[in-house]
Design brief:
Layout: H1 3-15, H2 33-45, H3 47-51, H4 62-70, E1 74-83, E2 95-99, H5 110-116, E3 127-133, E4 139-149, E5 157-163, H6 166-172, E6 180-188, E7 191-201, E8 207-209
Parallel strand pairs: 3-7
Antiparallel strand pairs: 1-6, 2-5, 3-4, 4-5, 6-7, 7-8
Helix pairs in contact: 1-2
């Protein structure tokens, strides 16, 4: 099984809460199945960072800064830089995941946090409609939610997600699995807004936008 097929299998089985059985596993001294899945997920999540370990801190491209200033925006902050995984690009999932442990800095006000925390699971949760500047600089609205993911025999994990129109955003901007993106926040009259940037690494180790 190659890396891509292995990644797809692990993601599918992990998302559905299945145990993974591998041919040739030695039952003596092997890790519990949940631990093996967790280690595989962590390895996949850091794949892009390991590919470019010495990249400098990213900055928001000038064209985005100009667009934000033209809209009267301020308080620009990087939320996350991540690789797009299979589930991010799945039309059935229709969401971009923003894991809490990968967030670069606080981007929500206490009022925002309280509102998003008022939901109790991924099917019944509060959502905040926000302005999104897409990689093409097109403007649209998208919904931000907080999900509490609960798995059997495991503690709950939380993440923010962009939902609702995510499939349309991905299609319009030709987003692809394993592509690196950045999500930035800014404020217009204290209201939170977002900007999505596509990135690629040049040979000299600097990121540029598509």
């Amino acid at each position: 099984m190659d890396v891509v097929d292995g990644k797809m299998k692990i993601e599918k089985e992990y998302d559905q809460g299945f145990r993974v059985e591998h041919e040739g596993d030695d039952h003596q001294g092997r890790l519990p199945e949940s631990s093996k899945i967790k280690k595989m997920k962590q390895k996949m999540a850091t794949r892009c960072d390991q590919q470019y370990p010495t990249l400098p801190p990213p900055d928001l491209p000038i064209k985005f800064r100009k667009r934000i200033r033209a809209l009267g925006g301020s308080d620009i902050a990087l939320i996350i830089q991540k690789c797009l995984f299979k589930t991010d690009m799945s039309s059935d999932h229709n969401r971009l995941s923003i894991p809490l442990n990968q967030i670069q800095q606080t981007f929500l006000t206490p009022q925002d946090t309280e509102f998003l925390n008022s939901g109790n699971n991924e099917k019944k949760c509060s959502e905040m409609e926000v302005l999104l500047i897409e990689p093409s600089l097109r403007r649209d609205t998208i919904s931000l939610r907080k999900w509490e993911m609960k798995k059997a025999s495991e503690s709950a994990t939380s993440m923010y997600v962009l939902v609702g129109k995510w499939n349309s955003v991905a299609w319009r901007n030709a987003l692809r699995e394993d592509e690196t993106v950045q999500l930035w926040s800014f404020r217009i009259n204290s209201k939170m807004c977002l900007a999505l940037v596509k990135r690629r690494a040049k040979s000299n180790g600097y990121f540029i936008e598509f």
